[in-house]
Amino acid sequence: MKARVKFVDGMTFVGEAGSGHAVVMDGAPEYGGRNIGIRPMEMLLIGLGGCTAFDVVQILRRGREDVTDCVVEVSAERAETDPKVFTSIHMEYKVAGRNLAPAKVERAIQLSKEKYCSASIMLGAVATITHSWTAIDDAAMPDLLAKA
């Protein structure tokens, strides 16, 4: 796996993945950025959320669960002094589908956390990671991604 990060100007960088995709990263204005991209530490949380969401959906589908949506909301606390590592991370899963088995949802999340999600396992070496989850029947909440 490879990645490349290129300086643009100010505190703006473009990250390019080996898969050919790119993302803009930028700093906050108080650090010389223009606030036009994701902060690098935010990208770590997005990567963690993406890694575990992929796992959970794949595990549930392999178990013949009818998953129609999955959202992982990730929040974190950081140390107050440099290098300001993450000290605690909480992941809230909202998994939607038709007649989802709650035990299978819980098991998929545990398997992701303990066995499959390399981001979770790496970050778990320096931060306490907790999770909560809700299984939602499609009829109860048709658009899980909509913000309240």
Helix content: 25-40%
What is the CA–CA distance across the termini? 38 Å
Q: Catalogue the unreliable spans.
A: none
CATH class of the largest domain: Alpha Beta
Structural class of the helices, strands and pairings?
alpha+beta
Describe this structure as you would to a colleague.
It is a single chain. This protein has about 150 residues and is an alpha+beta fold. It has three helices and six strands. The chain has two domains: about 40 residues, N-terminal domain of TfIIb; about 100 residues, K homology (KH) domain (GMP Synthetase, Chain A, domain 3, 2-Layer Sandwich). The strands form two sheets. The protein has a three-stranded antiparallel beta sheet, with no helix packed on it. β2 and β3 form a beta hairpin. α1 packs across α2. The mean pLDDT is about 95.
